[in-house]
Specification:
By secondary structure, the chain is mainly beta. The chain has a domain at 84-205: Cupredoxins -  blue copper proteins (Immunoglobulin-like), CATH 2.60.40.420. The protein has one helix at 98-106; strands at residues 7-9, 48-53, 65-68, 84-93, 116-119, 143-150, 158-161, 166-171, 186-192, 202-205. The strands form 3 sheets. Strands 5-4-6-9-8 form a 5-stranded mixed β-sheet, with no helix packed on it. A 3-stranded antiparallel β-sheet has the order 1-2-3, with no helix packed on it. The radius of gyration is 19 Å and the shape is globular. This is Plastocyanin-like domain-containing protein. InterPro entries: Cu-oxidase-like_N (IPR011707), Cu-oxidase_2nd (IPR001117), Cu-oxidase_fam (IPR045087), Cupredoxin (IPR008972).
Length: 214
């Protein structure tokens, strides 16, 4: 259970209410059992974001989610509307609790490597060890948009879908080609389903060395 927390929206510029950045010192922690509504304007920050707690190690406790800032209807978009739009939250996972990991760091030690990776809070197996239900279902000939965010603590991850070529259409609000998802980074890609009656695995791996294009 999280005790007192405050949320931050990664990379969103706080318009009109700049003090609502969610950081300790500018926001009071939200006590357990209480609610707080953040009010701010995003204006032209049209892209994919995610939010997470900014206090302690609460982010390790999976307290995060995706945010989408869409353009207004009167603003033309250079891309056709996809059949569906998915948010994909990938990140490293540690077996220890956020309190245990915080104690390790406070003692001056490293937290080591994670025991696995979660995609939208799930692995490929359910609690009984059987294959889990598909995360996404696509139809042949249709295009789908995936907003990929690395919500992990430390590990950079590569992401791809088996037997599919994805087209990169946005990275942190701009375009690039070669990339990896370092912790805190966000990507938007589009995937056109080109095969019938075939299951595809969502694959990830840790790159040998980070690749930066910014």
């Amino acid at each position: 259970m999280l005790t007192r927390c405050s949320c931050i929206r990664n990379d969103i510029q706080q318009r009109k209410n700049s003090w609502m950045d969610g950081m300790p010192g500018t926001n009071y922690p939200i006590p357990p059992g209480n609610n707080f509504t953040y009010h701010f304007q995003v204006k032209d920050q049209i892209r994919s974001f995610f939010y997470f707690p900014s206090m302690g190690m609460h982010k390790v406790a999976d307290a995060f989610g995706g945010l989408r800032v869409n353009s207004r209807l009167l603003i033309p978009v250079p891309l056709a509307d996809p059949t569906d739009d998915y948010t994909v939250l990938i990140g490293d996972w540690y077996a220890k609790s956020h309190k245990a990991l915080a104690a390790i760091l406070d003692a001056g030690h490293g937290i080591g490597n994670p025991v696995g990776v979660l995609i939208n809070g799930r692995t490929s197996k359910d609690a009984s060890g059987r294959d889990d239900a598909p995360l996404f279902i696509m139809e042949a000939g249709k295009t789908y948009r995936y907003r990929i965010c690395n919500v992990g603590m430390k590990v950079s991850l590569n992401f791809r879908t088996q037997n599919h070529r994805m087209k990169l259409v946005e990275m942190d609000g701009s375009h690039c080609c070669l990339f990896c998802r370092t912790s805190g980074r966000r990507r938007r890609v589009e995937d056109t389903r080109n095969t019938f009656n075939q299951q595809s695995a969502v694959l990830w791996n840790k790159p040998r060395a980070p690749i930066y294009n910014d």
